[in-house]
Design brief:
single chain; about 220 residues; mainly alpha; Arc Repressor Mutant, subunit A; two-stranded antiparallel ribbon; 9 helices; globular; DNA-binding; HTH_MarR-typ; HTH marR-type domain-containing protein
């Protein structure tokens, strides 16, 4: 079959299922249904959720755990003990003397556990803190000279770990994954602090009744 005709037929199939869909959504639909590679080995440890939402989150969660495991190996001998410490130092470096609470919440920590981690980094001489000139109740933090050296070494190792884990994924697929998932990360990063203390059913109702940002519910 002529490639143009085949593409037109695929567009017709897509348009029947999603009458309001645009070209970007068609491209995602086409890739999702025609680019799947054979699975080698047991997916998500062999226990595959029946709900597609659950399967997607389980895949993301397991990749996150694997990233943490390999990253922690990469960090051995650097002065950092876990990938979360690296994330905190990166935030401090980027924001340039941020408030302690800003660093903690940016890295999705509870206040108590985030404070404990900052105290450990301070004890190891990687960060220093001082009173906020505008708000004496708040503390600001910055990297020490030792912290700057450590973050330089660790950045190289963590970047190598990221390249290693994503090595089998083509660059275009990486871009597509980021495009598809970034709004979920942005949305819930902004929501989780506001929803602390609420019952799950109340959170569920609040999220599910809010207007959806995309045109298509699924592909």
């Amino acid at each position: 079959m002529n490639k143009t005709v085949k593409l037109v037929n695929q567009w017709g199939e897509f348009e029947q299922k999603h009458p309001g869909g645009d070209i970007d959504e068609f491209c995602r639909y086409y890739l999702a249904h025609h680019k799947e590679k054979p699975v080698k080995g047991a997916l998500v440890g062999g226990v595959v959720p029946a709900l597609i939402d659950g399967l997607l989150l389980k895949i993301i969660g397991r990749i996150s755990k694997l990233n943490m495991a390999y990253a922690n190996i990469a960090l051995k001998g650097t002065g950092l003990h876990q990938i979360e410490e690296f994330g905190i130092l990166q935030t401090i470096k980027k924001e340039k003397s941020p408030k302690k609470t800003e660093v903690i919440y940016a890295n999705l920590f509870e206040l108590s556990s985030g404070t404990d981690m900052l105290n450990r980094l301070k004890k190891r001489g990687l960060i220093k803190e001082y009173a906020d000139s505008e708000d004496k109740r708040s503390k600001r933090i910055e990297l020490t000279a030792k912290g700057e050296k450590v973050i330089t070494v660790c950045t190289e190792r963590i970047e190598k770990n990221a390249v290693m884990l994503m090595n089998d994924l083509p660059a275009d697929d990486k871009e597509l994954c980021i495009q598809l998932l970034k709004n979920i990360e942005i949305k819930f990063s902004a929501l989780w602090q506001k929803q602390k203390g609420k019952a799950f059913e109340d959170i569920y109702k609040e999220v599910m009744t809010a207007p959806k940002e995309g045109k298509m519910d699924k592909i």
